[in-house]
Amino acid sequence: MELQGVRQTDGFTCGPTVAMVASANLDPAYAATIDDPAAEQHRIHRAANRIWPRKLGTTPWGVAAVISSHAEALGTRYGWKLFRQDLGDVVAAVESGWPVPLLVGRIVPRHWVLIVGHADGVFQCFNPSSGRIADVPIEALHDKRAQGVGFPRPYAVVLPSA
């Protein structure tokens, strides 16, 4: 799925948008079924938040479950973990072609972005609120001063596992 121009439909669908884009990039058959990205975001939001209030966004386990449903055909499931200083697993995943959702915020976690590339210590992050890709130095994530992704502090990542 072409990233540029895909945007979340409201202030609560960043997680579903990230899950949709990641899933579409992993599963071309799924991507071919997305005629209306806005409607698909809302469908995913309902599916990922069966007991979690949608006004509170999407949980890491909800994002992981949505992406896993498309990655399983590739022999992979996604799981989540709290952000740590060692991002070797994130770098390895992205460099192997696996998109990695990242939950960011300021005081509390509140926005999802999608890490889609890495080069020379800089992640390329798709931000669904702008529909653009921002370069985020890994050092800026460590220092909780990321720019271009809406909020400076990383909280959690959603990673593939074999």
Automatic annotation (TrEMBL):
Name the record gives this protein: Peptidase C39 domain-containing protein
Species per Swiss-Prot/TrEMBL record: Dactylosporangium fulvum
